Amino acid sequence: VKHALTTDTTARVDEWRLGMEGALAAVFKATGMSYDCVEAKNMFGVQLWLFVAQTHSSELSKLTTEVVKIGFGGAVGNKGGIAMRFKLCGRSVVLVNSHLPSGGKHVEDRNSAFHEITGSLSSSMRFSRDCRLWDHELFVWLGDLNYRVQLPNEQVREAV
């Protein structure tokens, strides 16, 4: 933990950003589209990036970010979430990347972490201005959620 708390992650984040920009350029080279990283946030290894096509950059507005640290009593961001809200082409969007507590028997801890993150975002005047958290037209939650499916492998595969 000491290493993670005292290590500057700027170089690593820059390396990831350059890699992402290179991958996007390669994938969309044939289309002639270009993407710009308009926002990037890092929290103890959890990252959230917003790339917008240059053709749509003028359609991006009201970009706000929020970091919610819940690890070690909120002092450290080893658990928690990063959120971005914005309007793109007139549509309201929220993106959340989170790292929830691990462990097979800690479902209540994960549920509690989810509620703590959403509660913090909902009560943030800066984050919730203009549109309440759950009222956005698109809401994407991703990350290391650490939930476990407690069913036999074959049953899960059949259900999927």
Please describe what this structure looks like:
This protein is of the alpha+beta class and 160 residues long. Helices cover 32% and strands 36% of the residues. The chain contains five helices and six strands, in the order H-H-E-E-E-E-E-H-H-E-H. The protein has helices at residues 2-6, 10-28, 107-123, 125-128, 153-159, and strands at residues 35-43, 46-53, 60-71, 76-88, 91-99, 138-144. The protein has a four-stranded mixed sheet, with helices on one face. A two-stranded antiparallel ribbon has the order 1-2.
Task: Give the topology, please.
Elements: H1 2-6, H2 10-28, E1 35-43, E2 46-53, E3 60-71, E4 76-88, E5 91-99, H3 107-123, H4 125-128, E6 138-144, H5 153-159
Parallel strand pairs: 5-6
Antiparallel strand pairs: 1-2, 3-4, 4-5
Helicity, as a percent range: 25-40%
What strand order characterises the main sheet? 3-4-5-6
Largest sheet: 4 strands, mixed
Instruction: Name the structural class.
Output: alpha+beta
- Calculate the mean pLDDT score and round it: 87
Q: Which radius of gyration do the C-alpha atoms yield?
A: 18 Å
Shape: globular
- The low-confidence runs, each spanning 5 or more residues with pLDDT under 50, are 1-6
The number of distinct helices, counting runs of at least 4 residues, comes to 5
Percentage of β-strand residues: 35-45%
**Cα separation of the termini:** 37 Å
Helix and strand sequence: HHEEEEEHHEH
List how many beta strands DSSP finds.
6
